[in-house]
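Structure ticket #2291
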Amino acid sequence: MNSSKRFEKLIQDMSNCSLCLNFPCASKSLINIYKDYNFCTNIPSIWTDWFNRLDSNIMIIGQDWGPYIEMKKINGSLEKDKLNWKELIESEKSLTKKMLEKFIIESSKNKYNLNDCFITNAIMCARQGNNYRGNNIDLKNSTINCSRYLERQIEIVKPRVVLTLGLYPLISLSKIYGFGISNTLKETIKRSPEIHLNNFIVIPLYHPAAQIRKEEQLEQYKRIWKHLENI
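Resolution: structure written out below.
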């Protein structure tokens, strides 16, 4: 089975998952976007057209997609305004996207950008409401629930380098692959700036919009490229 077919099967399996839809506190529940096959296989987020990136050597794992209402707007713009995804993503000006792209371009000396990366999240469903942050979802339990699907994405894409943005993607990988992490992201980066697994390297990163010195962040990004030198 080729990678596209395996990814389609993964989406079908995720569409049947309800682990994060019925938390005791309803306000922390998520929306399973994979039940709408056309929606999620097209472009679920402004970050990714993932079927065109299944052979990427770099995988970026964020925390979650954010609110479903925003993702719905994106898909609506694609259909209503007849935009292609590339036009749409270039129009998006969030600080996170701008900083992440800047760090990748600058650290690689203009050899790579976000188009070279497969982008996914530790939490694969979308938030209710319109709040990108805050405590309206159960971050830890949802991260653990979704780890099985993240593992399958890694198996399909086969990246050489995996970048984790913030703590929760790192928690997910530590559960999947059985390595230890420190109590805080800062301690983990200090003690384990690179985590070597059998088939790929994990490079833990701060969230690109975090209040961390640019020079300190760039040191981690610079670690990526030595693992891709022979490509």
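Closing remark: The beta strands are 30-31, 58-64, 117-123, 126-127, 161-165, 195-196, 201-205.
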